[in-house]
Amino acid sequence: MIRQVIQKVVTGRDLTETEMQTAMSAVIDGKVPNSQVAAFVTALRMKGETVAEITGAAKAIASRVVNLQLNNHLINLDRDDINLENETILKVGDTGDNNTRTFNVSTATAFVLAGGGLRIARHGIRSENKHFGSADVLADLGVKLDISHSDVEGCIEEVGIGFLFIPFQQGPMRNVAHIREEMGIRTIFNLVSPLLNPAGATAHVLGVYEPALTEKMAQALQNLGAERAFVFFGEETFDEISICGATRISRLENGKITTAMIQPEDYGFEKVKQDALKGGNVAENARIINKILCGEKGPCRDIVLMNAAAGFVVSGLDNSFQEGIERAAQVIDSGKARQKLDALVQYTRQCEPFVRKDLE
């Protein structure tokens, strides 16, 4: 079957969602030779992955992911200014490694959002790159990541934020991990990984590595059950909202997807060079995040404010980016973001070490 699928893609024809789901299921289950997997994903990239193909691949992999059990995914948030009977979890995702050499913006953003009252579920693959991987930065900050599924659930329920990082050689994509590493190029796996949603979140903030992907990924999220989402590509920062230049944002809301361009100057931020956001090794990236959470001002804080604003808006807590930026600044300056990091460190340190056999 896989040969026919490869031949179809090589000739420039698109796969249906069902065809893609069937083919990807075989790939993930280790039923396809490595050479054919490489040919398949390379051909898809050269043709350009469609929404149906991305959706089908995501469904195939998601059906093999162990889900978190979080009160049927309906979370009640105790907020001073809003009282909704049923609240969703906000998922902050990214597309994995990029080549921008910025610090771990989304990791800092997650603590700001949690400090603002949202329940945050982050998941991903633990990168082989020990220089920039967010999992290793979190570990340097004191967060224990090798904890059980139930302890991750406890983090989200009690602390308001939880991280589930699957080691590179484990989880549903373990059969293709070495192929991805050997190929060394972005493929459909990089698109699908951020769409996997073990927490059942209906609100999403997602960065992508090409501007043409914002609408595609927003449509794929909608196909997978998302109710609200921001998908963006930033100039110089790729999968973060940028303060280096324009950001293309596709928004899913009320069943519709709209796309717009925003500039940092629109919200009172000075445009900066990419070097102003440069990270370093694990210890340096952890130090930058600590400084931001402790209130240090500058470009690194500014980009976190912009990205946190997207989370506050997509969750429905704020109506505009300007309101979200103001809330994010207040969360940092009040110490609430830093308190969330401290609480997560304290909670996870009490958890027993866990080998993720449940994800194998």
Structure description:
With 360 residues, this protein is an alpha/beta fold. It has 2 domains: 2-62, Transferase, Pyrimidine Nucleoside Phosphorylase, Chain A, domain 3; 71-359, Pyrimidine Nucleoside Phosphorylase, Chain A, domain 2, CATH 3.40.1030.10. Helices cover 44% and strands 12% of the residues. The chain contains 14 helices and 7 strands. The protein has helices spanning 2-10, 17-28, 34-47, 51-62, 105-115, 134-140, 149-159, 174-183, 188-192, 213-223, 282-293, 299-314, 321-333, 336-349; strands at residues 90-93, 120-126, 161-167, 203-207, 228-234, 247-253, 256-262. Strands 3-2-1-4-5-6-7 form a 7-stranded mixed β-sheet, with helices on both faces. Helix 2 packs across helix 4. The longest helix is centred in the C-terminal third of the chain and has 16 residues, at 299-314. The chain is globular, with a radius of gyration of 19 Å. Residues 72-88 and 95-100 have low confidence and may be disordered.
